Amino acid sequence: MREGNPDDAEHWEWDEANERELAGHGVTPTEVEEVWEDGSPIMKNKKSRSAAWKMVGRTQGGRTLSIYFNYDPTRLSIRTVTGWDSPAGDRSRYLGEK
């Protein structure tokens, strides 16, 4: 699969499996999409385990989340792998919080 750029995505892929994974961390699909719409920083996932990309940002409710996802350039879609409340290191590194 080509790598592509997630900024070109046109839609999200949601199903029971990735929604359940997020719910296990207290995160909803709506919150993931809010982080995306907030213009959050997107970067390659350095650990590159099951997700090629990572974004860190805030929901409309003020939560700061770290979201891991894959982008399919042939379908112009994003599929979230997992996400959780951002640890202090992510908040500092990507959002400048102290």
Describe this entry's structure for a reader.
- The protein has helices spanning 16-23, 29-37, 88-95, and strands at residues 11-13, 42-44, 53-58, 64-72, 77-85.
- It is of the alpha+beta class and 98 residues long.
- The chain has a single domain, classed as YaeB-like fold.
- It has a 5-stranded mixed β-sheet.
Give the tally of β-strands: 5
> Any guess at the CATH architecture?
2-Layer Sandwich
Question: Going across the major beta sheet, what is the strand order?
Answer: 1-5-4-3-2
Helix content: 25-40%
Radius of gyration: 13 Å
Question: How many domains would you count in the coordinates?
Answer: 1
List its traits.
YaeB-like fold, 98 residues, alpha+beta, globular
Task: Give the arrangement of secondary structure elements.
Blueprint: E1 11-13, H1 16-23, H2 29-37, E2 42-44, E3 53-58, E4 64-72, E5 77-85, H3 88-95
Parallel strand pairs: 1-5
Antiparallel strand pairs: 2-3, 3-4, 4-5
Concise summary:
By secondary structure, this protein is an alpha+beta fold. The chain has three helices and five strands, in the order βααββββα. It has a single domain, classed as YaeB-like fold (2-Layer Sandwich).
